[in-house]
Specification:
Blueprint: H1 2-24, H2 28-54, H3 61-74, H4 101-123, H5 127-148
This protein binds heme C.
Length: 151
Amino acid sequence: MRTKLLATAVMVAALGGASLEAMAQAKPDVLVKQRQAVMTLQGKYLGPIGGMLKGNIPYNADVVALNATFLENLARMPWDGFDASTKGEKSKAKAETFTDTAKFKAAAETLEAETAKLGAVARAKNEAGVRAAFGGVAKACGACHDAYREK
Ligand code: HEC
């Protein structure tokens, strides 16, 4: 397990620079599709955790750990899709996304930080911790949508 993780880390380090370059070169309409797809998947994995915390679905710590881990990884993926080249594409991203770039980046980093917290407590099977961390994630989604997504 440990060796496998290490091997993955080395691979990610080796590929990191190159793959980011490749993504930046994707066509603008493809970048929009990709970022929307990541957003859709974030909703997919966040929703059931919310449902469990509300009591709509029975709480399952294994599902919460898996979903939160997916979410933590997904939270790092959409941002290079908001490239300036996509400004003219049809999408729900407001124009400010491409002018307020420092604030948009800060909102993205807030989500990364909040999902990392949620992932850690979820993997520790700490339900009270999940309950406490969930709000921070939901708030990070909502705050960015209020500022940068068309209704
Ligand atoms: C830093 C800003 C930001 C954060 C944080 C953020 N989003 Fe988004 N989201 C956007 C923007 C901008 C769009 C519109 C993108 C587009 O249309 O190209 C969007 C679109 C979406 C969509 C619609 C996708 C589609 O197919 O049109 C969903 C679903 C979504 N977000 C879910 C989430 C969830 C769930 C979270 C939190 C886990 C989240 N987002 C966090 C900025 C953000």
